[in-house]
From TrEMBL:
Catalytic activity: L-glutamate + NH4(+) + ATP = L-glutamine + ADP + phosphate + H(+)
Residues spanning the signal sequence: 1-31
Residue span, GS catalytic domain: 138-407
Name by which UniProt lists this protein: Glutamine synthetase
Keywords from the named record: ATP-binding, Chloroplast, Ligase, Nucleotide-binding, Plastid, Signal, Transit peptide
GO molecular function terms listed in the Swiss-Prot or TrEMBL record: ATP binding; glutamine synthetase activity
Cellular compartments per GO CC: chloroplast
GO BP terms, alphabetized: glutamine biosynthetic process
């Protein structure tokens, strides 16, 4: 019997703006001369009856490894697959990805989604970046991930991922969480998680608009909920197979960034946006292989735990910037320097465990990744460590003893 990733539902209050689907047009204050109204009419234009041309929004990851960039181009006809799209270029010196004297960077289309902002046949295109000679630039983490996921051993194991993306909404001018008094604090944590009500839930319109826009786009979003810290939310993407998990998370982040842009709210993926007695923001990654999902899967999971424990610091170093501020041993985390795991009893696991939570058959949950992690890096590293990497027998025996595992 397969175990499936558990998902929940969430909350937030109405904001002083309106986000309308399917095209996600923000309704601004009407001007006396009707200029805003005419702008809205143009934004909602359906081009399909008049032209076969579509707008493709090319999306890529910038020089920080977390910033999202995009630009638009006209395509002569509707397309379904990235192979139908031309490569494009951009000025890498303006994104921190190339020197000024040799700044051209080439975009390779890799995944196509429907565009919930423009509607019709218009599309969002997830790309990765290369030099003009065809070499992946250093910030192109998708290329290495694709290599790992194209290994036949990995293909045969059909790796599934379910990613829990947490994020925080901030007020624009003060960069303080949405719903918090400016310069002050709300009541302590407790009543906000999955809560309902104007005094407990802040940003529901954004979360709900994002949920629907992701479904429209074709992203495999599975659910969403309000988080423990007020102004903080989570959504889940998956189960997704292989490289698709990273493509879907990056596109979902782009859509969320666009929605918060329209709403006049700042999106933060900082793993510890508010210091003190407040939960941080993670990106828990649920993972399984074909062998884990079949009879005898528990033994495969235990072997995966051994491998993960031996490469703990390799994973931590790749699991997001500022994660040390989140993984402190408090607020449902373990210390960043300690690998720990637990077996759930009656479906309940120690949520402070840093490493993984295992079920008797099905999947493990890696609770270490920060909210700003690169999903290409995390998903491919999990596959590499648990499927491809082989530790020495001595290291394996030592880890088994330390973790009290018999494999």
């Amino acid at each position: 019997m397969h175990r499936h990733i558990g998902l929940t539902a969430f909350p937030v209050k109405h904001l002083p703006f309106a986000v309308c689907l399917p095209w996600l047009i923000v309704l601004a204050v009407k001007s006396d001369n009707g200029v805003v109204s005419r702008l809205e009419d143009l934004l909602k234009l359906d081009m399909a009856p008049f032209t076969d041309k579509i707008i493709a929004e090319y999306i890529w990851i910038g020089g920080t490894g977390i910033d999202i960039r995009s630009k638009s181009r006209t395509i002569s006809r509707p397309v379904e697959y990235p192979s139908e799209l031309p490569k494009w270029n951009y000025d890498g010196s303006s994104t921190g990805q190339a020197p000024g004297e040799d700044s051209e960077v080439i975009l390779y289309p890799q995944a196509v989604f429907k565009d919930p902002f423009r509607g019709g046949n218009n599309i969002l295109v997830i790309c990765d970046s290369y030099t003009p000679s065809g070499e992946p630039i250093p910030t192109n983490k998708r290329c290495r991930a694709a290599q790992i996921f194209s290994d036949q051993k990995v293909i045969d194991e059909v790796p599934w991922y379910g990613i829990e993306q947490e994020y925080t909404l901030l007020q624009t001018n003060v960069k303080w969480p949405l719903g918090w008094p400016v310069g002050g604090y709300p009541g302590p944590q407790g009543p906000y998680y999955c809560a309902v009500g104007a005094d407990k839930s802040f940003g529901r319109d954004i979360s709900d608009a994002h949920y629907k826009a992701c479904l429209y786009a074709g992203i495999n979003i599975s659910g969403t909920n309000g988080e423990v810290m007020p102004g903080q939310w989570e959504y889940q993407v998956g189960p997704s197979v292989g490289i698709e998990a990273g493509d879907h998370i990056w596109c979902s982040r782009y859509i969320l960034e666009r929605i918060t842009e329209q709403a006049g709210v700042i999106l933060s993926l900082d793993p510890k946006p508010i210091e003190g007695d407040w939960n941080g923001a993670g990106c828990h990654t649920n993972f399984s292989t074909k062998s884990m999902r079949e009879e005898g899967g528990y033994e495969v999971i235990k072997k995966a735990i051994l491998n993960l424990s031996l490469r703990h610091m390799d994973h931590i170093s790749a699991y997001g910037e500022g994660n040390e501020r989140r993984l402190t041993g408090k607020h449902e985390t373990a210390n960043i320097n300690t690998f720990s795991w637990t077996e759930p009893e009656a479906g309940i696991a120690d949520r402070r465990c840093l490493g993984v939570v295992v079920d008797d058959l099905g999947y493990l949950e890696d609770r270490r990744p920060a909210s700003n992690m690169d999903p290409y890096v995390v998903t491919s590293l999990l596959a590499e460590t648990t499927i491809l990497w082989q530790p020495s027998l001595e290291a394996e025996a030592r880890a088994a003893k330390e973790l009290q595992l018999q494999v």
